[in-house]
Hints:
Blueprint: H1 3-23, H2 40-47, H3 60-64
Amino acid sequence: MGRFQELLRAADSLRLLTAIARRAACLAAVRWEEGWHRPVRQGREELGISDPADAEPYGLHAQLGPLP
């Protein structure tokens, strides 16, 4: 992948993450220890994360595999 394509991909990723952050609840205020028993999908719904970046190279699928 050329340098220009890398920059375009980074810009697209930044746009996607910014859009997700604007719609989601403040993640710094979440009491994470109270939600470990819930499925990831349920936690996302409660926090307003409706379009996660799982399929991206930095997303959960790349890090952990598909979610249950």
